[in-house]
Fold these 4 entries.
Entry 1:
Amino acid sequence: MAPKGKNLKSTKKVTKGSASRRLFNEESDYEEEKPLLRKQKKKQSFKKTPPPPPVKVEESEEKHNSDQLEFEEHESGQPEFEGPSTESPFAEPQDDKDSPIRETMVKCKNPKVRDKTRWQIPKVHKIFFNGLHRTNRRAVKRPIFEEKRIITKGLIRYSKVGQKFHGYDLGWTTRGGNSFLPALVRDFYANYQAHLENMCREGEKAADQPLLDKVLVQGVMVDISEATINRFLYGPNFTPQATLPTFYVQLNHRENQQNWLDTLIADEQPKWLINSGERIFKASLNSEVRFWWGIVRTWLMPTDGDNIFADDRAILVTSFVANLKLNFGEIIAKEIKNHVSRSDIAYPFPYLITRLCRAANVLKIMGLEEELLAKKTHNPIRNEEI
């Protein structure tokens, strides 16, 4: 009887083992070392397949090793921007085949390699993070000032101002569909400022250095000349008009400004006209000037302040009233340098800077760049009777 019971127990054990084996491999004929077999099968079932090899960007293979960077290039099949568009304030050059507009995504595994790509100019690393410092009021030291889409609804009722607006061809201030990359914009301004500071000799400042036509951003030269800016504003076939010397005469000779600014007077004689030390307040200006002030402070000489005119902005606003010829690409290029030279004001023109960098094929770093869409608008006609 004992051997028979032993055989029954053995048969039951084999049956249990064979059932367990069938859960992992129904065709298995092993009858020994069942625990080892079960352990091996479990290990194999959770074995991960190796990831596919990364797609590499040809331009970057010469700079970085394949084990340091993993590149992923995004191609939509068509250019993202196909020439001047009514939905964008910056018209791309159509005939520039050497500068295709595309976005290259770069995913850096090694932070040291990524930082080496970004911080190629001495001092740029310090300047970049210094702009992100918080003030005593917990505000970012150097915020980004977005261009605001101009609302011209109702301008047709004011023929005088409307004719000037269309005569200056300012339609690019009214078009939407914009976006910008904050980190890329800060990279651009930090590199511009670092380049100017490295040019300084003993006793010189960044403001004393000449205007730059190109800025190195993440190892790529970005063209920011006035000619290129005008092409982005108006298109490749646009021929800008030269700014009349009167504009710069008034900027350089402060003693002659008061008489010329007389055109800003509304109905009474403000204090700033009598005393050159007085500030120019928006409330003392006529309605047409307030309209041009909205254009100037949002697109040409950006500022958050709305009620007080600075000298340069007052001269530019008066130039609109006097219908002087103005080269906006030249004005914007100089304004970019003016903001670079000061360390206490916001970074302007983020949409324009982003588009210029994209056209130059500046790499977009994945995980670092957050694209923000334009949402802000400004209506200089609201509550005004021009």
Entry 2:
Amino acid sequence: MRCDQCKHWDEPREWDFDYAGMRRCLAIKQAWDVENAAFPHEGKDKYDFEDWSEVQRIEAEALKAAKAVAQDGSSYAASIRTTGDFGCVLFEQKP
């Protein structure tokens, strides 16, 4: 269940922390992408709901189902970097 054996461990990229043996985890999505992917919900877009608490409930369910998300202060871009010997419950063996 190590990242270096997981299909979600991205290839090294120059902006990743390759010099430290770290790569990006593709299984852990940006929080806003997880929230937005929950819509349309039952045929309704996020902004079609009159009750905003229903939107928040749907987004909360999506976040819980994701198990983990990445979030930064700017909501511009966020990702998780791990070393090869890290592991998690989202592990899927490389083919």
Entry 3:
Amino acid sequence: MKHYFLRLIYLVPLIFAGMGLLAYILGGQISKAYADTEPWAYRFFGLLITLACGLTGFLITRFILKPVQDFVRRAEHITSDPAQARSPADIQKQTENKAKPPVRSEIDHFSRVFDQVTELLTQVEADRMFPEMIGTSRALRSVLSQAAKAAPTRATILLLGESGTGKELLAAAIHARSDRAKAPFIPINCMAIPQELLESELFGHEKGAFTGAQQARKGKFEETDQGTLFLDEIGDMPLDLQGKILRVLQERSFQRVGGNTTIHTDVRIIAATNKDLEGMVKSGEFREDLFYRLNVFALTLPPLRQRKEDIPFLAEHFVYQENPKAVISTQAMHLLMVWDWPGNIRELQNTLHRAMILASDDNIQVHHLPPEMNQGFTSSRQEQSEENTTLDDRMAALEESFIITALEQAGGIQSKAAELLGIKPRSLWHRVKKYGIDVEKYKKD
């Protein structure tokens, strides 16, 4: 037996049109029968028809909106964080406000929740596409969401950010999610290779092109044909070589050093730098035309100090890679969280590698970390102890500092801060009230 379905966009107008037609017919019949003889009956049936039409409209609207309202209500529990409320009364008030939005803003309310769900789904998609990028911070997820959109395209990508933020790892991940994934991904560091050899490394050379060129050799552009070439530290590339890179981007062709044969290539360029290219363009240190060619789709990777909530995940990942049985003590993890990490992820990885060598019992403690990290921790504790005399006061000051640090890293979100501290959100809420900590000032805009 076949089933036929009519879409709501056609069904609802059809129902209302039918109700209007029915009201018109009934109104005409009642008018003929009662308008002149019994006016009260005429008014009664008119009111009855109006109420019937209104009730039908209400039921239809309720039938359509009920699933939407249920979805919005459930979605709010996922996309919002009730632990941000500062007291149980605030939580109740927050829930009531969400449950009964003003009529004028109901559509805006729905739209906002839909946007939040869409953002959440985009982040899930980014997690699925880039599992090698460790972290859950909003700063990282935002970059990965954009990278997920750019990966399947042919667009040239410019990765910006400090050294050690994972630009090469992201470039390789973008290549792996593109239609060039089966072709080579070749990275080259423009700063690590001497300037006089960089041109030959990129474009290759013919036999006898210079002293020592005993035979012809392919360059990276030939080897990467149909693939992705990652030009790291492109801000350190000489100006004369920048012009040749520009030609490849424009014409998809080049010549080897010492040769006059034009070689065509289809290469996707992903460039990276830790320098201010716009500033270099203004000072004449970088070609403006090349900058605009590279800056088609720019992504800025955040430094580790701006995504400290990712440090526990990164630290556990690095430790597990070397020794699955090793653990990091709570005090050591706190030191990792408060350090500024000028060398970013690379510095964190090297620090943990050193700590694991020193930790013979697979338990990383504070004294296994670099001395400068311990000194900063000790000096801050000494400053606090000067103002406190009793042991209870010192312990309270230490606990308060841990809570404040966790709130700073979690952007004022108490549930995340509680997770970092290894306690329940309700326990953290009591401690926040105890020390009179203003959570609002730690929330990020």
Entry 4:
Amino acid sequence: MTSSRQGDTEITDHRLFDYAKGSFKLSARVHVSHLVFETGFKRLMDQRRNIRRLERILRLQGCLRLMKENHVSVVVPQADWQHRVRPRAGNHIIPSLDVDLDYGLRALDHENLIAAARNTLAFNNQWWVVDVYVTEDEFGDRSTTSQGLQGGFLQSLRERFSNEHRPSDGLIYERINYYEGHLDGPEDRQAADSWWAALEAVAGSKKGQYLRLFFRNTSLTRQLNALLAIPGLWDGMQIGNLHKVSAMHCDEAISCYWEHIWNTFLALVGDRRPLLQLIDGVTVALIESRVPKVSEKDKKFLEKKMDEGVLFPSFPENDRQEIWSRLKEIEYPIPSLRTFFRDRLYLEVPQSVMKQLFHQPSHVDDKVTIDHGVFRLWDIDSMLDTEARKSRFRMHMLELWRFSFQYGFEMTDWKRLKLPSGSASRSSSSQQHSVHLPRGFRIPTHVDLSVLPAAFPSEIPCEYPEDESEEIAVKKRSGKPSIDTVEADRYALSAASLQERRTPTRVTSGFLRQSVFKAFFGYLMDHDPDSGQRVWPEHSQDSIPRTVEYDPSLYTQSVQTSNISDISPGSSFESAPFPTPSGIFPSQDTALLPNPCPFI
């Protein structure tokens, strides 16, 4: 750190210290019912796991309410001090506060601790110790020096965390973007640096480095930031994996999945975008991966949670009923950021196949997405008009990705999830048909590809679980599939199976494989106006062969002779031959928008 930077930090630190010292009045006892916490991104994204952890601790050791580090900081406007909030006379070690019955003390920290204490302390013993700070007004801003100090002081109280409980990745990501001016607030470099420091607080952590690498991809950053409009998603954030997201060069597929998340939750609130900010983390955790229209078990579970008031608790009751009417009609696994990071592991399998079809430039600034790279290998039919060429190429890309999903485990060294010890695989015959290709296998681009089909196992119509009364457990519905679903997955990802427009009756392995394929590659598929879902293009049978391995014309250029440097992304059909994951997300050549959700 430079001496000038340290000097600025010391000046700010000294001013805040003096302000806190002058504003502090006393430490006092108060009934916990008077403590009111802010409703914001931090609370809404929280899935309450820390509350349950603290409840266990308090039941074991009791509540240490007098310890200074457990005091709750509260702020009282000068106009209310000694009028609506008054210290009570007495000789107690810790005095008490008299608070008007209809008055709420604005508490700035320890919300989870107080929530745990409310559930742990006896009814007649629910008091806590607060540190009272009296401020000039209720809401400070930075329009004047004194108000700027007040705002900085309140921020320091609101955003402090103990070393034992660091803030979540989702909150850190949101705060860094906010203070760097990418959302709806002014840029605050010092505050942003504090959150970068929180990210790197754990010894040996490389999350700061990984996040900076991800931010270099401004298009993906902007699209991910759009989901900040839905706070409940962000407990599933994994900053430690963001560098892998951008390094896959599957921007189109990843953007499509994020748009799928956006569209799902926007539809739930009836396209009323301001209501997205009321969706909380507990709700998202309970509904993710469930398919209420397909699974009767899922529907009954969610209906019970709705009746208990657990789902969408921040919404008025009439809105909750409208949301339920839409929720129970969802016929695909409900996506979230948590399911995205799990499904990204599955996407790595076909990505490992597709990336070998072309030569990726070594310089980071010259790298292109896989779709753009493969396009350079495509033999453009000059007899077709532009729209026809786009449609033809889109069909080819869809078939390539489908084939890579279907046989990705056979063509790479990626492994499926192993069964728990003692479990038996129902698809034992799959081991007889597996193709063990050497590491680094490349689909040939300069030989007759018709030699490949004989090596691949056949598609056998089947499903898993076989028992019609069984379904895949909710926790196993995202991520890489297990070894006992090989044949069912292979058949589900066949072109013939994907073309069938049948209504599923239960959540099976095949249904899940098709769902995740559509979540990533819906931008290459047709939109069914009746169901609102992405479906296999009806005209694909006439435009491309049913199995990609029979069509050598798709690969007329060899990997060795392809020249990716000729691509000029975003400038022509050659660089953007297919529709982007929709017009919802902002274009790639614009700066980060000031609003976290560019669709509002």
